[in-house]
Amino acid sequence: xxQVRAGARTRLTEPxxxxxxxxxxxxxxxxxxxxxxxxDAGHPWPVREPLRAExxxxxxxxxxxxxxxxxxxxxxxxxxxxxTRDPAVLGTLAMWGRIAEHEHGFRAEYGYPQRLSLICQLCxxxxxxERSIACEVVIRHRSGRMVPLCTPHLExxxxxxxxxxxxxxAGIVERSLLDAYAVDVxxxxxxxxxxxxx
Length: 198
Ligand SMILES: [Zn+2]
Ligand SMILES: [Zn+2]
What we know:
Elements: E1 9-26, E2 33-36, E3 51-52, E4 72-75, E5 89-102, E6 105-118, H1 121-127, E7 137-140, E8 145-149, H2 151-159, E9 166-169, H3 170-181, E10 184-185, H4 188-196
Parallel strand pairs: 6-10
Antiparallel strand pairs: 1-2, 1-5, 1-8, 3-6, 4-6, 5-6, 7-8, 7-9
The structure holds zinc ion (2 copies).
């Protein structure tokens, strides 16, 4: 693992890896499924080409700048992502180009997902990745937004009147997502190993 001081900035040609979460959107038949950033309702992540970060504050500097928040964010501690709002997908991200390193992660100039997994956000919030139950279904809202859930949490949503306009098979949505980005599935046990390897 690259040793860089917290707050340092460096330039890399070999990618480094971190964890991040995304929201998910797709077509009614799940033939087209895309990752979207958590923080804003921005553009879908490009498929089969790297994302290049631009300064979100539209400042004129090279991204990521140390005194800014710009860059593609990823963390080295998967549990920190439990605080993210409405996570639908957990994955590992390869990052390269200019990198700003922080105590718990990185901001990068370039990034592309490496491994992806649908997550039940209720399991993830309550129990973390290691004790999450596998997603069986994906609720698709009319806006296109997709919410993966395990069976117990789907039943909970139905009992408490959470809108469930369309229910898709989680396996089909995940396959479509992996095919779109041409990546492999992230197994939760694998997430643990990546963490231990640090
Ligand atoms: Zn900036
Ligand atoms: Zn669940």
